[in-house]
């Protein structure tokens, strides 16, 4: 098996089950045009998040790491009209691009974008008693992934789903001596999960149009 086959199959699945509509295409184009990194999830991963959201009848979703709002749009489209997505972005310029994409998608009434460091905003959300969220998608900076996950549990309820992206990093997680703080960040989370009773968790390897990686998928016990 090679990368080309993984890409072709990813496109095959995407064409069948996760077609990119005008709104999602627009979000990708504006992200690119603004010179932002194209590190959003893929269409098939967006559809995967939607399936998870529907499985847990999500009405309230929390996302860490907005970028241009591509994954946020997938998530917002998975909740009912009176549902809500709160998404956290550190970079105010990125947040501005995302905000205009939410308006273009006519989803701005259901998306609350918070600009700031995720660790600070998570504390604010706790104080504001915004919990519980039905689904939490962690996709911000990697070094504090364990702290993000632990905060996510505090903002969840039994049965809430927590997903954390990019925890395999092309297999670099196998290197316990890695000097990469992103690798060490996700390794801390993966290791912590192995002995933890608060969630039932696994890691799915992802291949396709994005780099070889993986996602933690967990449900709160
Ligand atoms: C991988 S991108 C998010 C991609 C997005 N979820 C998608 O799939 O469309 C990670 C984002 O996290 C943001 N970020 C980095 N550090 C952060 C922090 N401490 N708090 C909040 N956001 C942060 C980055 O600016 C970037 O936009």
Describe this structure as you would to a colleague:
With 221 residues, the protein is α/β, with parallel strands linked by helices. It has one domain: 3-Layer(aba) Sandwich (Rossmann fold), CATH 3.40.50.150. Helix content is 43%, strand content 19%. A seven-stranded mixed β-sheet has the order 3-2-1-4-5-7-6, sandwiched between helices. Helix 7 links the parallel strand 4 and strand 5. Helix 6 runs parallel beside helix 7 and helix 7 packs across helix 8. The mean pLDDT is 97. S-adenosylmethionine binds next to helix 4 and strand 2.
Query: According to CATH, what is the topology?
Result: Rossmann fold
Number of helices: 8
Q: Which structural class matches the secondary elements?
A: alpha/beta
Hetero compounds:
S-adenosylmethionine
Estimate the strand proportion.
15-25%
Radius of gyration: 17 Å
- The CATH class is identified as Alpha Beta
CATH architecture: 3-Layer(aba) Sandwich
Described by strand count, sense and barrel closure, the largest sheet is:
7 strands, mixed
CATH superfamily: Vaccinia Virus protein VP39
Tell me roughly what share of residues is in helical segments.
40-55%
Count every beta strand, where a strand is a DSSP E run of 2 or more residues: 7
Element order: H for helix, E for strand: HHHEHEHEHEHEHEE
What are the segments in which pLDDT stays under 50 over at least 5 consecutive residues?
A: none
Distance between the termini: 37 Å
Order of strands in the sheet with most strands: 3-2-1-4-5-7-6
Task: Average the pLDDT over all residues and give the rounded result.
Answer: 97
* Form type: globular
Number of domains: 1
């Amino acid at each position: 098996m090679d990368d080309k086959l993984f890409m072709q199959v990813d496109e095959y699945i995407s064409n069948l089950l996760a077609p990119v509509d005008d709104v999602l295409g627009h979000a990708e184009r504006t992200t690119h045009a603004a010179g932002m990194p194209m590190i959003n999830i893929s269409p098939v991963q967006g559809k995967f998040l939607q399936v998870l959201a529907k499985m847990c009848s999500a009405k309230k979703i929390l996302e860490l790491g907005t970028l241009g709002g591509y994954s946020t749009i997938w998530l917002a489209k998975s909740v009912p009209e009176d549902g809500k997505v709160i998404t956290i972005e550190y970079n105010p310029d990125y947040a501005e691009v995302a905000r205009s994409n939410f308006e273009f998608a006519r989803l701005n009434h259901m998306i609350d974008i918070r600009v700031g460091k995720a660790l600070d905003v998570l504390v604010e959300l706790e104080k504001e008693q915004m919990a519980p969220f039905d689904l939490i998608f962690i996709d911000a900076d990697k070094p504090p992934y364990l702290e993000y996950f632990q905060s996510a549990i505090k903002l969840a309820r039994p049965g809430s789903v927590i997903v954390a992206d990019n925890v395999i990093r092309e297999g670099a997680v196998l290197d316990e001596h890695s000097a990469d703080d992103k690798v060490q960040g996700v390794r801390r989370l993966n290791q912590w999960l192995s002995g933890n009773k608060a969630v039932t968790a696994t890691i799915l390897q992802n291949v396709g149009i994005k780099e070889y990686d993986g996602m933690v998928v967990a449900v709160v016990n």
